[in-house]
Specification:
Structural class: mainly beta
CATH superfamily: Pleckstrin-homology domain (PH domain)/Phosphotyrosine-binding domain (PTB)
Shape: globular
Radius of gyration: 18 Å
Order of helices and strands: EEEEEEEEHEE
Largest sheet: 8 strands, antiparallel
Helix content: under 10%
Number of strands: 10
């Protein structure tokens, strides 16, 4: 089983309203730790994303399935995606652009290509190439 776990810091948002009156509504009162765990890797990859407020109350608990979820960068530090299970749009405004990039990289589909190469030192090396699909 593939196991990935990250903790990043972000504000949590959810789209509120319908049609012309849609807007981002803050779910968290402040920046909160976002916990990312890979909970399944066969046949598809499922990430569980959770967040707790300062009172240790769970305020965010969603799953991202890959392939299938498109994670859209809106700015350098804000990403959002459609949650088909809860029928809503979620957004995370990360403390840094680096954290937003880490989130996208972690929750993206990665194709691994493993191959052996014969080195000039007369032994085989295992090489790993990967392509991230967002």
């Amino acid at each position: 089983m593939l196991y990935i776990s990250y903790r990043l810091w972000a504000d949590v948002f959810r789209v509120h309203g319908d049609g012309e009156y849609m807007r981002w509504q803050r779910v968290s009162d402040d920046v909160v730790p976002i916990n990312i765990s890979c909970i399944e890797d066969t046949p598809s990859t499922v990430f569980q994303i959770t967040a707790y407020n300062r009172h240790v109350e769970k305020i965010f608990d969603v799953k991202i399935t890959q392939p299938g979820t498109i994670i859209c960068p809106a700015t350098e530090s804000f990403v959002h995606w459609r949650d088909p299970i809860n029928q809503c749009e979620w957004g995370l405004n990360f403390s840094t652009a680096t954290d937003a990039h880490r989130f996208r990289d972690c929750c993206a589909v990665i194709n691994l290509i493993l191959f052996l190469t014969y080195s000039r030192f007369n032994f085989y090396q295992l090489c790993v190439c990967y392509q991230t699909i967002i």
